[in-house]
């Protein structure tokens, strides 16, 4: 074995440990392969990737024929080439890849469920897209998705078709399974894998927050004639704690509304707006009576249609003042205070 081949096998073992720590190759899942000239070095099947040693790595040629089988270790199982081998070969043969990785990371699995019934993952306007060869920040990155099968090797044909039909892709997602990713060198394949895992995580988190990970950021408003420097013509602020001290509402506005509610009701009693608010207030008073609030009884029983409205207005005024003193957070009261 040449020094270069040995170093490649050692590198595969090192990457396996790194990818295990990252959650890509846990539970014996996932696989790594690196090419040296006409030889491809692949991890075996069904082994703990974080414990793999150089003498356990297979060597195959570009046709997928095994040219070096690891020796069976004392008390160990017969070495078996990774089930990913026929899938890896598609990337080597179609793209002349220098390395191909297979990840079982949770984000690779989950992200495919965000695209149920669809054949590709897409994301745009993310800085890490620039880590994918041939893509920039403003581009829409597209990663094909193929459907999973019961056995790994059964994915080979559909993965080969996905690679052929998506010449810009550097990876293929397998629904509820994982991802195959490659590059011209092992460094590029690793970079592609790291960037894609990041982007999948971003997509999942943005989806959870109700954000569209394919939409560009909302632009800042431009300056408008007659408006503010930011382009807005009007700004609506909550006065409490914004334009005035937070005590202003209780110390000034509430007393003002209580002192003027009677006069306001008397002058606007027959208006459409006041009539609607009064009807809502009376329903609230009836609910309060049922709940045991004695101060609501007079207004709850008032006849809003009586010819002499003075009695009803007095009862309504008394009820509104009681609501203000109790600092009730109810819609009809807020609406009436706003009108006053």
UniProtKB/TrEMBL annotation:
Q: Name one GO molecular function term.
A: metal ion binding
Keywords from the UniProt entry:
Amino-acid biosynthesis, Cytoplasm, Lyase, Metal-binding, Methionine biosynthesis, Zinc
Q: Where is the Class II aldolase/adducin N-terminal domain?
A: 10-204
Single GO cellular component term: cytoplasm
Q: Name one GO biological process term.
A: L-methionine salvage from methylthioadenosine
Pfam families attached to this UniProt entry: Aldolase_II
Could you tell me the superkingdom of the organism this chain comes from?
Eukaryota
- InterPro entries the record matches: Aldolase_II/adducin_N, Aldolase_II/adducin_N_sf, HAD-like_sf, MethylthioRu-1-P_deHdtase_MtnB, Salvage_MtnB_euk
The record's NCBIfam families line, in alphabetical order, gives: salvage_mtnB
Alphabetized HAMAP family for the sequence: Salvage_MtnB_euk
Q: What is this protein called?
A: Class II aldolase/adducin N-terminal domain-containing protein
What is the species of this protein?
A: Spumella elongata
């Amino acid at each position: 074995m040449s020094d270069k081949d040995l170093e490649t096998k050692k590198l595969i073992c090192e990457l396996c440990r790194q990818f295990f720590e990252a959650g890509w190759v846990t539970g014996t899942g996932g696989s790594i392969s690196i090419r040296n000239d006409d030889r491809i070095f692949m991890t075996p099947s069904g082994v703990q990737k974080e414990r793999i040693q150089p003498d356990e790595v297979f060597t195959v040629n570009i046709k997928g024929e095994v040219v070096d089988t690891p020796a069976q270790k004392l008390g160990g199982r017969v070495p078996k080439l990774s089930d990913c081998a026929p899938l890896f070969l598609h990337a080597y043969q179609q793209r002349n890849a220098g390395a191909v990785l297979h990840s079982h990371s949770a984000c690779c699995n989950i992200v495919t469920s965000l695209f149920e019934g669809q054949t590709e993952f897409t994301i745009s306007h993310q800085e890490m897209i620039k880590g994918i060869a041939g893509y920039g920040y403003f581009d829409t990155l597209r990663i094909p998705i193929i459907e999973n099968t019961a056995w790994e090797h059964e994915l080979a044909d559909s993965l080969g078709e996905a690679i052929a039909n998506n010449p810009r892709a550097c990876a293929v997602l397998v629904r509820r399974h994982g991802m195959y990713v490659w590059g011209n060198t092992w460094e590029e394949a690793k970079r592609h894998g790291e960037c894609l895992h990041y982007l999948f995580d971003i997509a999942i988190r943005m989806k959870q927050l109700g954000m569209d990970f394919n939409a560009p950021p909302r632009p800042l408003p431009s300056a408008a004639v007659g408006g503010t420097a930011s382009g807005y013509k009007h700004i609506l602020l909550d006065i409490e704690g914004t334009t005035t001290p937070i005590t202003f509402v209780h110390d000034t506005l509430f007393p003002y509304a209580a002192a003027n509610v009677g006069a306001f009701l008397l002058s606007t009693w027959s208006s459409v707006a006041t009539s609607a608010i009064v009807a809502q207030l009376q329903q609230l008073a009836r609910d309060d009576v049922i709940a045991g609030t004695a101060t609501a009884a007079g207004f709850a029983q008032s006849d809003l249609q009586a010819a002499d409205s003075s009695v009803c207005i007095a009862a309504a005024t008394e009820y509104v003042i009681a609501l203000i003193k109790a600092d009730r957070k109810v819609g009809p009261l807020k609406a009436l205070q706003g009108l006053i």
